Amino acid sequence: MNLSGHTKPFAVLGHPIGHTLSPVMHNASMQELGFDGIYLALDVHPDRLMEVLPAMALMGFAGVNLTVPHKEVAFRGLAKLDASAKLFGAANTVEFTAEGMVGHNTDGYGFLKALDEAFGKTVEGDSVFVLGCGGAGRATALQAATEGAKALVLADIDAERVQKLESEVKALVPEVAIRQALDKATQVELCRSCDLVVQASPVGMKKDDPSLLPPEAFRAGQRAFDLIYMYPETAFLSTAREAGAEIANGLGMLLHQGARAFEIWTGQSPSVPAMRKALEDAVYGA
């Protein structure tokens, strides 16, 4: 990496930030492209975020990503928001323009692109089972509904969380059919009837975490997508695969949300193959 007086700085901000893989993939891409830039990871307390972002703009930063817990803070603090940020109520990408800062959210784009890449299809016309209706599951359900899913099954043990998400989706896309799955028997039955199953809970982040759903919840002809990417195959994915479903993990989503951010900042396409290889090497030691 040859840094110069013209090097464009980019960064991801979080608190904590040590776990992030964004610098790994972005720096690999910039190196491959011969792009004069550097991507850093910076720990910023959420209380200071809306002071730090304008300062970064003044310092000449070319773009910023945001991770937990900054996405909602930026959404509330930024005057200009892209439609993608408005949909999720969160901004993971900040663009610095002559007219000021603009908040975007590239997570939904990354999700759809990863599905298309893995399965040759996104969500249109599908019944989609969303397992875990917290932050990631909420985003998945909203994106699926707006992209033409015909039905959603919202599965969680927290009835209040499921009800709140159902109301949000209905307000946005009234015609989508929604069913709730709060107990295990209902989850198994409804999951088996769905085309796409999305695992959006944190279960699976530890290597020995069991699958939240048993083999009888899956079938051949189904697609199973786990947002977790720390392992090539979580117990959830192994269970789905053994029952005949096609499977994919969340690495593609991480990759493509990052690629989209680079396009927003620079108007250029990144080197997706270099980003993918850097991520796989970092995560799986390939």
- Quote the beta fraction: 15-25%
Using the alpha-carbon principal axes, give the shape. globular
Query: Portion of residues in helices?
Result: 40-55%
Poorly predicted ranges: none
Q: Distance between termini? A: 22 Å
Return the average pLDDT rounded to an integer. 96
By helix and strand content, what is the structural category? alpha/beta
Number of helices: 11
Let me know the largest β-sheet.
6 strands, mixed
Largest sheet, spatial ordering of strands: 2-1-3-5-6-4
Outline of the structure:
The protein contains eleven helices and twelve strands. Strand 8, helix 7 and strand 9 form a beta-alpha-beta unit.
Describe the fold and architecture:
The protein has eleven helices and twelve strands. The protein has helices at 22-33, 49-59, 70-77, 83-88, 107-119, 135-146, 159-172, 184-193, 235-242, 251-266, 272-284, and strands at residues 8-14, 37-43, 63-66, 80-81, 93-97, 100-104, 127-131, 151-155, 177-181, 196-199, 223-226, 246-249. The strands form two sheets. The chain has a six-stranded mixed sheet with strand order 2-1-3-5-6-4, sandwiched between helices. Strand 11 (223-226), helix 9 and strand 12 form a beta-alpha-beta unit. It is globular.
SSE map:
Layout: E1 8-14, H1 22-33, E2 37-43, H2 49-59, E3 63-66, H3 70-77, E4 80-81, H4 83-88, E5 93-97, E6 100-104, H5 107-119, E7 127-131, H6 135-146, E8 151-155, H7 159-172, E9 177-181, H8 184-193, E10 196-199, E11 223-226, H9 235-242, E12 246-249, H10 251-266, H11 272-284
Helix pairs in contact: 1-11, 5-10, 6-7, 10-11
